[in-house]
Amino acid sequence: MSYGWMGKLLRVNLTDKTWTVESSDKYHKYIGGKGMANRIMYEEVPAGTEPTAPENKIVFAVGPNTAGSAPTSGRITLSSLSPFTKYQSIVDAHMGGNTAMRMKNAGYDALVIEGASDTPVYIYVNDDNVEIRDASDLWGVTTSKTVAAITKATVPGVNVVAIGKAGENLCNLSCVMNDNAHCGGGGIGKVFGSKKLKAVAFYGTKGVQLADPAKVQQLNNYVLSDLIGSNNNHVVPTVAQSWSEYENSGSRWTGHPGLTWGAAEGGPVDTGESAPGQPTLVGFRCQKAVRDRGAIAEKYTVKMTGCAMCPIHCYGAINVPQMEPVTGVPGAHATTCLQSSGFIAGVMQNVKDVEEEGDSALLRSLYGAILCDDYGLWDNYGELVATLNYFFKDDYKLARQIMTEEQFNAINWSKRENGDLSFLDELIELLVDPNHPLHNLTAGAYFVDQKYHDILGDDYLNSQAIGLWGVMGGKRHHGHECAAQVGQLTNIIYNRDGMCHTIVNITGSGLPYAIQKSIIEGLFGEGALDAPANYTPMNENKAKFAKFGVMRQVIHDSMTLCNWVWPMTFSPRRERGYKGDLTVEAQYMAAITGEDWDVEKLDEAAERIIQMQRAMTVLSAGTNDMRNNHDVIPNFSYELNPDQAPFTPGTVKMEREDWQKALTMFYQQFGWDEKLGCPTRASLEKFDLKDVADELESKGLLPA
Question: How does DSSP assign 435-500, residue by residue?
């Protein structure tokens, strides 16, 4: 018997409409989730494959932790080739909701989707029964209506992962949605669309076998009572409470006496105090609807909801009745993160209040979120709306240059300027229309620059307004504004935004800097953590800290655990000196699988995944010079605060020579070639990746 893992991989071929089941056991040394999915992509999709080619694949993968009751273990990885960043290399989209639990309970560690259908279809998995069903009547239908239709046609409780018109029309920035609120980005929607795959539906009734259920329950109680904070593992509340020594207004531990779910069924529910040691109250800590949408959201908050196995619940479910008379759409939705701001609504101007002061911003964000979710349009963590505003600025100077006069004049721009939300309906239809120039702006920043470089010059990709981590087109997802060089280094492993919250979970914890510094330096050495906007030159301990950041992210995405909450670096408990416990992930692995997992073995597995993914990037790029072709950050990073020098109080400006030093030290941590930043034969063979080293060598990409 295999504990934790289900032991099965489901393979569905859309070309010949067949499916098979295989053993997943050989992937255990890659943990699961991200690691398993990346290894499958390496073995089965050759470098240079086009993302929309039938030869490209989509891999859904979960880990041994998934559906095993550990807090926040409801995540899933979707891996494929990137349609929207340079080199079109391997990317991972991490998604919450109930997909992971349903797929695991159906009996599978992974689903591999290959080939392409010539007509729209959806895949329905119900335990051992797998069907490829016609979806012609769903093509062109919104994601929410697709979920409703497939649920009606299958079983109550089914989880449906669907694309909207953005994916169908092959927008690079298109996503998949599940449960009408949980988004998986990374351009995966376009890959679905290229395969004529409208949706995947999962339902399962099989339980996950744990080697030591009593130990797992003990760990759950320990995490919930002593370690977990709120969203992003913020361990300090926003306002003073009877139990708290500190408070921090920037924390995501927003719940407190007097702050309510104002629209809860039966009347307002006070979020109250949820002191450490009270596991049943953890779900009241994160009143994120208010944090995301402002104080006005309190009266419209029905509850906080979230993913399977999550006690935090960072999705704000709100109901704004005054939206329907204005837009024709009911004002009920649940979202989090940038989608909560209804990103496309960021292009609007002068939206007027409807019933009370401030409700205009709430309606704007809510309507934008509903539209984008229904169309399956992805924001690349703010890049799309930044690009739109970049083209719309200065009286639409750039927008006029990419459209004919007739096309430009056909758009009712006055609606945008007068705050008419129906402008968003018109705009999103043009964005997903492959025959309209505005569609080109959904290609991702790198490809926007490639198409329009003659009118954009070098400023666009390097602009602070666009805010990329690097010139490949991936959006900065916490960069040098977060722990200086450490934060920026956590991005360079990836081919899209890093989605790595490990470091910001530390710097944003709410604890005073002195406590953060003491704990982090105890782990990584003196000088590992700078004070906010008071940076020092790069040192080796910062490189160790940065490596820890990406290693833990890989562990979480492979086990699976939510990197928006883990690792438990800190604790909310004063009696622990606010120290967390970084051994818990390994303890879970041992208790769940019955195997001899410890921190060292888990780190070894994580680094194996990183080494492999880096090699895959080298293969897709066709160059091993990652330093000069991949790990290049935008010029604005060096040009902030023109009157201030780097490493002076008050600026997060980077220094060019210091960044090169940071790269060298980071490469050394992984045993990569110090000049090129690529894996060596020694670094690959150390982690049983001789086959990868041999392929690099055969293509002249292994350093001498």
Answer: TSGGGGGGS-HHHHHHHHHHHHTTTTTT-TTT-BSSTTSPBPSS-TTTTTHHHHHTTTT-SS----
